[in-house]
From TrEMBL:
Record-annotated DUF447 domain positions: 91-173, 182-232
Name listed for the protein in its UniProt record: DUF447 family protein
InterPro entries from the UniProt entry: DUF447_C, DUF447_N, Split_barrel_FMN-bd
Region spans: Disordered: 21-95
Length: 255
């Protein structure tokens, strides 16, 4: 049974990693990783324009959360009343480059946010062209149908970005789980960020490869079968190991 509402189904703070499905021109739903930026609790400090499955990063303070059971503090129209209020009153996300998510946001005006705990689903969304027939993934614990309204656009490191106001229209909780902390899971998520930045001119490749090596070692020590399978999928898609010295010294996993 799914409990529905018009409020966010989970608490959001800092940057919450999600998967967004957007309806494409081929009548299928494209799934991609998307970082949801909560309102900045320290409005006097500048925050970075980052998110999406490329260049996921943030300088936002996560000491306060945007609780579930609330709606956006202001509408996107109200947020536009002053440039300084743009990033502080609503949930935002940023798309990088001419991605399917960006194009579908422009064409459809929104999508469906998914909150998942399966690292394999996240790797597929972050690193591959992942299309499904239905808007809600089988792996989703909760979802939110949202509108996406463009707030700002710009360029960073030669890549065009667009920032969007993300507003829930209808949300649902499919199942409630007891939260656990697993370093292997966290390493998989961070590895998708590092892998997405490979061959991007504004990032140092050697630094990224060192991070991926460390994340592989963390998954080997701390991850379970799902985390190891997810990392194996990341290996297959990105082929990052071919760029490192002594790849045989890095743990290898089976999908």
């Amino acid at each position: 049974m799914t409990d529905t509402s018009t409020a966010w189904p989970v608490g959001l703070r800092g940057v919450t990693e999600s998967i967004v499905t957007t309806h494409g021109p081929n009548d299928r739903w494209n799934a991609a990783a998307l970082g949801l930026h909560a309102p900045d609790p320290h409005p006097g400090q500048k925050s970075d324009h980052t998110s999406d499955n490329k260049n996921v990063d943030s300088t936002q303070d996560s000491s306060k959360s945007y609780d579930s059971g609330t709606t956006a503090v202001k509408t996107s129209t109200e947020a536009k009343s002053g440039a300084e209020s743009t990033n502080r009153s609503i949930i935002t996300a940023t798309t990088w480059g001419n991605t399917r998510t960006r194009r579908n946001f422009h064409r459809e005006g929104g999508g469906v946010i998914q909150f998942v705990s399966d690292p394999r689903a996240f790797v597929a969304a972050a690193t591959t062209i992942y299309e499904v027939d239905e808007p809600v993934l089988d792996t989703a614990h909760a979802w939110a149908e949202v509108t996406a309204e463009r707030l700002e656009q710009g360029e960073r490191g030669g890549t065009q970005w667009e920032q969007w106001a993300i507003q829930p229209v209808e949300t649902g909780v499919i199942d409630r789980t007891v939260p656990t902390i697993n370093r292997g899971f966290a390493a998989v998520i961070d590895a998708t960020v590092a892998a997405s930045r490979l061959n991007v001119a504004s990032y140092d490749t050697d630094t990224l490869l060192d991070r991926l090596r460390y994340f592989a070692e963390t998954v080997d020590r701390c991850g379970g079968p799902r985390e190891q399978a997810a990392f194996a999928q990341l290996d297959s898609v990105t082929e990052w190991r071919s760029q490192v010295d002594e790849p045989e010294a890095i743990p290898v996993f089976d999908e």
